[in-house]
Amino acid sequence: MKFYIIHGPNINLLGLREPTIYGKENYEALVQFIKNQCDAKQIESVFFQSNHEGDLVDYIQAAYGDADGIIINPAAYTHTSVAILDALKAVGLPAVEVHLSNIYERESFRHHSYAGMACIKTYYGMGFDGYKEAIAYLNDYIKGQNTKKSET
Ligand code: DQA
Hints:
Blueprint: E1 2-7, H1 19-22, H2 27-40, E2 44-49, H3 53-63, E3 69-73, H4 82-91, E4 95-99, E5 121-124, H5 129-151
Parallel strand pairs: 1-2, 1-3, 3-4, 4-5
Helix pairs in contact: 3-4
This protein binds 1,3,4-trihydroxy-5-OXO-cyclohexanecarboxylic acid.
């Protein structure tokens, strides 16, 4: 099992950026947290973070044929990027969306997610733990799909 863990703009500045919203731990700590969760489930985790929309699209495309699933926090592009939505739909891999903060309790422009329209599940407002839930959900989902396939 292999997951691509994709992060959008300013997630590299975790710890520094608005710590009352995003917490005091940095991106490296988040990567380690996710890696530990994946390792415990024998899932290979491959990380990518970019501040550039096109690079995120390229990376989602690269997941096709390599990854079993995607965990994505598109950050601000969540609320603007049809290109990321289209890329997720194009590759057709199961994807779970995560937001550290509760986007529904913040400004109204954060209430809509384009990426979420192509995701099987969204976790928000749980900090790092949202990723733990996302990994477990995606793992179970893919395993369930494989079971169904081998039954028929
Ligand atoms: C975020 C929420 C977005 O609205 C924001 O632009 C981010 C981070 C989150 O993880 O809570 O950069 O995706």
